[in-house]
Structures are given as C-alpha cells and as structure tokens.
Amino acid sequence: MALRLLQVIFPVKHKDEVEQLLHEQESLQTWTVVLDEDLASSSVLLMTEQTEKITDLISERFPNQEEFRIVLFPVEATIPAPDPQEDEGQKTAESGQEGEAQPQFGRVSREELYNDVADGADLSINYILMVVLSTVVAAIGLLRNDVAVIIGAMVIAPLIKPNMAMALAATLGDLKLLGQALRTNGVGLVIIVILSIVMGLMIPIDPEAEQIVSRTDVGLENIGLALAAGSAGALAITMGVSTALIGVMVAVALLPPLVAAGLLAGKGLSFLALNALFLFLINTISVNLTGIATFWFKGIRPRQWWEAEKAKRAMRIAVTVWVSLLVLAVVIVLLLR
Question: What's this model's pTM, rounded to 2 decimal places?
C-alpha cells in the first residue's frame, strides 16, 4: 500500500477549520502543531489515492489564500504498519460517498503527477546533454549492430517524459504545459536529426545491418507495440512507479528509428530514411494517443469545472488529430505491404 504524508501550513486563525476538515476525511493519522504566533501545521498520513481529494477540499475551502501551502511527501515505511483490513474498509467507505467526481484507481494525485511530468519536460542543459549523448550511443549501436548498446541508448534517452507531458497537457487542457512539452520535444528532435545526419555523412554505414533494417521495416505489429507501451508508460507515471518507465523506453523505442533515419539520410538513402522516420512517427502518435486515453481512464481531470470544459475541448481536438494520424499510418502500412 503506497502512502503519502500530506502537510498543510496555514495561519493559526484557521486552525479549528483546518482540523475539522482534515478529521472529517479518511486517513491513517492526523496531527496539528502550532509553529509560531502566526502559523500552524497539520500533517496527515494517508493512502496515495486519497491525497487529491483532500488537496482539492483545502483549495476549495480556502481559495486565494497565499498563506496556505500544501507539501506532499512519499512515505517509505511507517511503524506500526497500517492495517490492510482498515485500508480496505476506507476504500469501500469512500466508494460509497457522493461528491467524488472521478475514481482514482490507486493513482497519485493530480498535483504530484503534474509536477513529475512537467519536471521531465523541462528544457534544460541536462536534457540537451542527455539527448546528445544518447544519440551518439544509439548511432554507435546501430553502426556496430549491437543490441545491448542500442538498449542502453533507449534507457538514457529523455524522450518519453516530454511526450507524456503532451498527453497530460491535452487531458487537462493546459496550454502552458503543452507549449513547454512541444518546445522540449522539438529541440530534442532537431538535435537528434542534425547530429545523426552529420554522423551519417562522416561514418561508413551498412544499410543492410540487422539493427538498421529492423528500423526501416514497419508493420502493424509496430503500431500494436507502441500503443501497448505508451499505455504502460502513462499507467506507470500515474502509479508513481517511475522505474517502470525504463522498460517503456526500451519497448517504445523513440530514439533508434530517428537516429537511423538521420544516418541513412546522411548517406543519401532517402527511401530507407523515410521508412525509419515513419516508424518514429508511429511510435510518437501511439504514445500520445494512449497516454491521453490512460490519463482519462485513471480519472485525471482539472479541479475547477470551467477548466474541465476547456480540457474536454482540448482532449477532443488532440484525440481527433492523433486518431486521424494513426488511421493514416495504418493505411500506409497496409498499402506498403
């Protein structure tokens, strides 16, 4: 059972209101301390899926209160351990309560998810360096026909988080996050393409090498794999299991097809380069589409109703675009076959 420690810092004058609100909610334990003559702090030990409900209640009860701050901590362990039967009883009781708009299905809170995804979509010097290094590693792996090296490149490539950020932005209708994710994605892809083309111009390439050929042979199974891996990636993020993303990075393989496309383009092998680029586009489309679907299924919604309406419109547009592109990709694959 995943636990979180939720800490609320607030003005002392609201102490009774905050305590009453928190004690009305299901939790493992709640305690409050007065920090000084102006501030107090309440801490709540609770299950991960309960955090969003409480943070929403506090935000709604005390809107526009700059003195309030909510801090969320992951809990590695607690002694005594929580009672599993009590845990199940809380879940059953919550499922019967009215007013809980969306089920959470054991996921992290909206705020925790947003912070994790937005951090991964940040355009920083570290992101650029990781893109450059992973591109070099992937190119060497393709040129040497070395599967292990290619897998290593997929693991260190920071490409999955910006795409997950795009999917989350579409689900929440968050244009700011969408712009950040698009910028980060765009810069990363431009670096990969330019660096790969330059290496293709300078280094001998065997276009019949197994690892290069496999990135130019596109079939329906590639679409199925990308859809499943994209959904698994979004699911792992909503569960707070970031280590599972390593497997998703390897399965969905965003980096190797794009590097292969650049290497082949550098040698003037345009048809093969387009095939590899097509595989990359299929993977990107699938990751974003299944990411949106998974976030929606897991109950990710904006907190305010007016934001929810904007999110619905944004999600409809995004899903329409991604589904149309995926259908077009399927048609092209069938025609090529």
Answer: 0.82
